[in-house]
Model the fold of this input.
Amino acid sequence: DAKTTQPPSMDCAEGRAANLPCNHSTISGNEYVYWYRQIHSQGPQYIIHGLKNNETNEMASLIITEDRKSSTLILPHATLRDTAVYYCIVSIGNEKLTFGTGTRLTIIP
Amino acid sequence: SAVISQKPSRDICQRGTSLTIQCQVDSQVTMMFWYRQQPGQSLTLIATANQGSEATYESGFVIDKFPISRPNLTFSTLTVSNMSPEDSSIYLCSVASIADTQYFGPGTRLTVL
Done:
């Protein structure tokens, strides 16, 4: 699995968009970009994933650069409940996931 | 997405004993995995639970310490054997089907005294 690099921590004001970057410069052509979050030692929660195109669902948007070497997860209107550790993972479909250290996102009231 | 439950949700155990953790999913799935999250750390894959055959273990994990069963497509167990305080962690199961996303259970918080 390709390695990902994320900032260790970020703050975001409540109600603003939270933009979480991820670098995955060694991603291979058949690897997807997955995002999960973990709230206070609960089981990781799936957020979104994509291969090449930008993706949007009810939770977030995923922007993948054209060269696929980096991506950004966007939470459009952050709330206090979005405070969590966010993990960016590259993987081939439903195989084992290799978790890095993630980004600890704190939403500020 | 699949609904996944784990039992127990938490336990406190004495060193030298063993604990079996159950993972139940509400629909048949292709893949089941077991992860460990040590205090303050990220998740590490222990093994892939294979239905009808021996689990596939990651480097650093062995069957004698973490025996795994998967008797059918909706259930798996992980046993933590001969526990020591270093085994204090959150143990998580996850599931996935072909061409599907991997989903995680709520975890089992284990403390070994």
User: Anything to note?
Assistant: The beta strands of chain A are 9-13, 18-23, 32-38, 45-50, 55-56, 61-64, 70-75, 84-91, 103-108. Chain A touches chain B at residues 34, 36, 41-46, 49, 87, 93-102 (CB under 8 Å). Chain A has a mean pLDDT of 94.
